[in-house]
């Protein structure tokens, strides 16, 4: 979980439990107590005025041309309800971390679901998502055996629709051996193909983070929306109208339920 405040990014490491062949660490249940404790501490600081919650950096033109929708009450548990603007929904999510006994192979996998209904979407919009990645750990060197990929399929009123999301890990500087990693992908929604790009920068020009703080959405380079995943609640910058609006909302909620293995 990357909750950044005044440039501070808090990261949780997952403890493992040994068995005869594999070490397992399951974030379900455990994550509720970890995240809720951190969230309560952060909330106390925010309410006391000691720190100000940092937000992602988005172009001023996009901020003016889009509508802010607050996604609240999702909390840190593996299931629950949430408020999205004037709409309501519920979600589930999970993440499992496994490693071989020698720690050489490490696998992260998981997924989530959500259902939302109300004036901000047409009918009852839902999705089922999953992710996976495999890494090779050899001393201080970590190599990717199977890069991170997150996929979602969407439904409306319980029926599949022509919509899907895929987000993958990519190098920040292609061709460079020691390049840092970021994420990018696409959302196919109705007749639209929307690009997804990770945002690592906070407003005010503070130091970029390793884990994405949010995502930008564009159509052939034209920025149409964004989602800020940083902080206690999420903020969606959605188009004011048209089919692009629901597409951005669908992708934003799908990204909000992800328990990121990089956190």
Explain the overall architecture.
By secondary structure, the protein is mostly beta strands. The chain has one domain (3-256). 15% of the residues lie in helices and 51% in strands. The protein is built from three helices and 16 strands. The protein has helices at 30-48, 60-65, 243-256, and strands spanning 3-5, 8-10, 17-18, 22-26, 66-72, 79-84, 87-100, 105-117, 124-138, 141-156, 159-171, 181-189, 192-199, 214-219, 222-228, 234-239. The strands form two sheets. Strands 5-6-7-8-9-10-11-12-13-14-15-16 form a twelve-stranded antiparallel barrel. It has a two-stranded antiparallel sheet with strand order 1-2. Strand 10 and strand 11 (159-171) form a beta hairpin. The longest helix has 19 residues, at 30-48. The radius of gyration is 18 Å and the shape is globular. The termini are close together.
In short:
The protein is mostly beta strands and 263 residues long.
Mean pLDDT: 80
- The radius of gyration is 18 Å
Total separate domains: 1
Helix content: 10-25%
**Alpha-carbon distance between the termini?**
5 Å
Percent strand equals over 45%
Query: Structural class, from helix and strand content?
Result: mainly beta
Shape: globular
Number of beta strands: 16
Biggest beta-sheet profile: 12 strands, antiparallel, barrel
Widest β-sheet, arrangement of strands: 5-6-7-8-9-10-11-12-13-14-15-16
Would you identify the regions where 5 or more consecutive residues have pLDDT less than 50?
1-52
Element pattern in H and E: EEEEHHEEEEEEEEEEEEH
